[in-house]
Amino acid sequence: MRLLFLFAFVALLATLAHAWEKEDHEIFDLVSALEAAEGKGTTFYSWIDVPPTATTAEIARAYRKKSMVLHPDKNPGVKGIQERFARLGVISAILRNAEGRKRYDFFYKNGVPRWRGTGYYYERFRPGLGAVLVFLTILTSGLHYIIQRMNYKRDLARIEHIIQQAKLTAWGPKLVPAESRRKVKVNLGGPPRYDAEGEVINGKSIDMVVESNGEVFILADGDLIPINTSTAPPPAISKTWFLALLSSLFGRFVPRKASASDADGEDAGTGEDGETGTDSDMPELEYPELNGNGSGELKGRPVAVKTAGGRRRKVTKRR
Fold first, then answer.
1. What does the pLDDT look like over 145-169, one tens digit per residue?
2. Helix axes 241-253, 129-171, angle to 10 degrees
3. How many other CB atoms are there within 10 angstroms of residue 234's CB atom?
4. Are 9 and 68 part of one and the same domain?
5. Neighbours of 266 (CB within 10 A)
């Protein structure tokens, strides 16, 4: 919803910016140049010294009077006098023209817009290829970060829903913790499917284990994988596409120095006969099984639990 509102706002700005014509942009430039040279808040009328209600004849007389004061021949060696004199002629021409004065009076009463369209700024500043690439990189990286945040919020809601469903299945609607861990099957939802006999299969289900202390695990290939709010990867600026690309290139072309922990790990993995140990040398761990009574209670045998670091820890039934 917020993203839709943002797109609508940008579309509105683009529409307004497209509405300004060449003559409007000329007035924008004159207003900026006049305030920069004569002071903030200086208007066409105040500089020529006439009221906004002045007639065309009054404006012409005021112009002749002001032009005599600013004429370059009467101000030899004065810095910027040529630009001021030329600007006076352009401003006087706008105010003495009915259409030009009508345009200026609109901005005089309502104010000159701060955003004047990308075309206006591009024509005046003409960014180079490098500036354009930097702008596009920042823009796309910012959008990538916004998408990360949206996905993170969606993943958190999904994880909390799965945990809640697992606890409801294991403990019942009152959510009274069981005395022992329980294995349950949680439906992840999704569109219904049909088997070969035409029976309805309501979405995809996964096996989960709910501990008595409230910890929830996914049971996959005999391994218990913890699931909680830390499971979802949080958004980070370093994960945006450009910084991630730089990090990948840096890691590829710059060799990583071996740390002390790496050296210890190599020593620990080498046996007395000089051979390196592997995971296949480790003893097999027993996996959880359902009790024969069909209650969903798991036997108190040790099970393998995967952690983020890739190691395993034994979890036994609490007595």
1. 999 999 999 999 999 999 998 999 8
2. 100
3. 12
4. yes
5. 11
294 and 188 in a common domain:
yes
Radius of gyration, CA atoms only, the chain? 37
Predicted TM-score (pTM) of the model is 0.46
Could you tell me if 52 and 44 are in contact, meaning their C-beta atoms sit under 8 angstroms apart?
no
Whether residue 117 sits in one domain with residue 180: no
Residue 173: closest CA among 162, 165, 182: 165
| 113 shares its domain with 187 | no
Long-range contact set of residues 233-242: C-beta below 8 Å, sequence gap at least 24? 233/152, 233/155, 234/152, 235/145, 235/148, 235/149, 235/151, 235/152, 236/148, 237/141, 237/145, 239/148, 240/141, 240/142, 240/144, 240/145, 240/148, 241/140, 241/141, 241/144, 242/137, 242/140, 242/141
Say yes or no: 207 and 289 in one domain. yes
| 10 belongs to a structural domain | yes
**Coarse DSSP helix, strand, coil percentages of the chain, rounded to the nearest 5 percent:** 55, 10, 35
pLDDT tens digits for range 19-69? 567 788 788 889 989 999 999 989 999 999 999 999 999 999 999 999 999
State yes or no: pLDDT of 115 exceeds 50. Answer: yes
Q: Is 69 exposed, middle or buried (0-12, 13-18, 19+ CB in 10 A)?
A: exposed
> For 281, which DSSP code?
G
How far is 224 from 287, CA to CA, in rounded Å? 9
Instruction: Provide the residue range defining the domain that includes 303.
Output: 173-255+281-315
- Give burial (CB, 10 Å; 0-12/13-18/19+) of 111: exposed
Please report whether residue 181 resides in a domain: yes
In CATH, what number is assigned to the domain containing residue 110? 1.10.287.110
pLDDT tens, 297-317?
A: 444 444 444 544 444 444 444
Q: What are the C-alpha distances in Å from 171 to residues 83, 84, 163, 187, 224?
A: 83, 84, 12, 16, 19
At 278, the pLDDT band (50, 70, 90 cuts) reads very low
Q: For residue 113, give the amino acid letter.
A: P
Helices (H) and strands (E) in the chain, counts: 10, 8
